Amino acid sequence: MVKKFLKRIVGFVILFIVSAFGFRLYTYNNTTQAAALIDQLNPLVQPEIMYVKTTDKYAYKYPDSVSKIENFTYIQTCVNKDGQKRELAYTSFGRPLTPKKFLKLTTKGQSIQSWEEVDEKEIPKTILSLL
């Protein structure tokens, strides 16, 4: 009885670990809301800083369900501190972003935790050349 219980526990632990790694691979460069939610919950995905140069081309806009103001979602290739590129989706609420500005995004996988506009001088030169 105890042996059967231990086998189940070990099986669940192995399933959890395999699922966490599998989901991490699945969500990489996947800009859906499901991918962002999975990454928020996945303990193997660590927060990181990404940089992007804004554009005037947003992927889509939609009205807020309560206030009816327009929100603008952008899907762009972003760069982390190591120069690795990844496609991310981020949203500007109430107005489109000014083109050719630089954003610093705090992410957890595909989930954008926050973003802020930064000056070009605040971005490392190695990353700036990739944007």
TrEMBL record:
Pfam families this protein is in?
A: DUF1093
> Which InterPro entries does this one have?
DUF1093, YxeA-like_sf
SUPFAM superfamilies from the entry?
A: BC4932-like (SSF159121)
Q: Which Gene3D superfamilies match?
A: 2.40.50.480
Taxonomic superkingdom: Bacteria
- The protein depicted here goes by the name YxeA family protein
